[in-house]
């Protein structure tokens, strides 16, 4: 990353993630409630459907505009090395890795998780 950006706090990032997860959960219920999907999830099937909606929603938004709803609310954005959105393929990779949790917990000194390193992205203050 050549330009300098303000690093967001871990708290802001976690709140943004929680907002995105609740939105994905409610979206999954709205889209798949006819199939019995509930929030909170009633089992692994519900959780997998919610996770699929989460990956889809977050990947599209991050890839195209550089922020998810949660990131926007918390004043964050996701950038590639030239400061632009990372594109959908890299956003899908990042979001799938984020879903596994562990890649997000292991961080570098500049607060980039393994999911960000793999996608060539960085979360910054908007």
From TrEMBL:
Matches recorded under InterPro entries: Pra-immunoreactive, RDD
Cellular localization per UniProt: Cell membrane
Membrane topology classification: Multi-pass membrane protein
Record-level GO cellular component terms: plasma membrane
Domain RDD: 8-120
Protein origin, superkingdom: Bacteria
UniProt cross-references to Pfam families, sorted A to Z: RDD
Major subcellular site: membrane
Keywords: Cell membrane, Membrane, Transmembrane, Transmembrane helix
Membrane-crossing residue ranges in chain numbering: 14-36, 48-70, 91-108
Protein name per Swiss-Prot or TrEMBL: RDD family protein
Organism of derivation: Aeromicrobium senzhongii
């Amino acid at each position: 990353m050549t330009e300098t950006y303000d690093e967001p706090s871990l708290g802001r990032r976690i709140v943004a993630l929680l907002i995105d997860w609740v939105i994905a959960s409610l979206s999954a219920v709205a889209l798949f409630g006819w199939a019995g999907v509930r929030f909170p999830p009633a089992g692994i099937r519900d959780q997998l459907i919610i996770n699929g909606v989460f990956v889809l929603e977050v990947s599209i938004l991050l890839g195209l505009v550089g922020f998810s709803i949660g990131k926007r609310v918390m004043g964050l954005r996701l950038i590639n090395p030239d400061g632009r959105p990372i594109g959908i393929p890299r956003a899908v990779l990042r979001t799938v890795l984020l879903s596994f949790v562990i890649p997000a917990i292991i961080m570098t000194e500049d607060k980039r998780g393994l999911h960000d390193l793999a996608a060539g992205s960085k979360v910054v203050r908007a």
